[in-house]
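In the laboratory, one determines a bound structure by crystallizing the protein with its ligand and collecting diffraction data. In a computational setting the workflow is compressed into a single prediction: the sequence and the ligand go in, and a structural description comes out. We illustrate the idea with adenosine monophosphate.
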Amino acid sequence: MKIIMLGAPGAGKGTQAKRISEKYGIPHISTGDIFRANIKEGTALGKEAKSYMDEGKLVPDELTVRILLDRVSKDDCKGGYLLDGFPRTIPQAEVLDKELEKAGDRVDFAIDVEVPDESIVKRMSGRRACLKCGATYHVESLPPKTEGICDKCGEKLSIREDDKEETVKKRLEVYHKETEPLINYYEKKGILETVDGMQDAEEVFSSIIAILDKQG
Ligand code: ADP
Ligand code: AMP
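The predicted complex, in structure-token form:
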């Protein structure tokens, strides 16, 4: 099963992706997490990606596509995978489709998690992230058991640099211009599914499971 998570930054893609990946036993691949891991390790890729991320811009397609195709070629992706934060542009989606087609394969589901812009800034300002295992929390709606500490791996939680209000606004602008057209792209392919991201996280998860189990 190959799944794509669509939705604005902060819509809850990563939160749901973790749960789906655990339930269905497929790897959760987040291009944002890959970039952040590289930034943490101080690699050349990390340095390049950081210059775009800190400004709320997208990392160029060429670089992002290379990283993604390399990741999905790994053995653990043979039984399917879940992409979170990729594709973010039409050209990225086209490259992915072409690569899959070559292998006689295709994306099965594109799940759009819908949250209005007004709620996004609030979500992002309370987001706390684990830079070690990628888990995400919210100080009010999804707090960790111990304040500031990741439930899953015990790492200290961080505030993402790109979650500052001005950067979030820029990221939303970029989302509407570059990424939202993907909704139409996948709708035309007949694989778009929409869920209401304003429900609580458990309810969003149940809605997604209902979609995957009905047709999967
Ligand atoms: P994305 O991966 O789409 O950028 P995240 O999964 O990191 O978004 O979620 C953004 C913030 O909103 C996090 O702080 C997360 O804990 C919180 N969050 C996620 N889903 C919900 C929800 N259904 N209701 C309230 N808060 C949520
Ligand atoms: P995310 O963790 O998905 O919110 O991504 C954080 C940042 O990483 C984005 O704001 C972009 O700068 C960059 N990024 C992640 N995925 C992509 C992608 N598919 N294309 C371009 N930039 C990306």
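The chain has one domain: 2-117+179-215. Keep in mind that any predicted model is a hypothesis to be tested, not a measurement.
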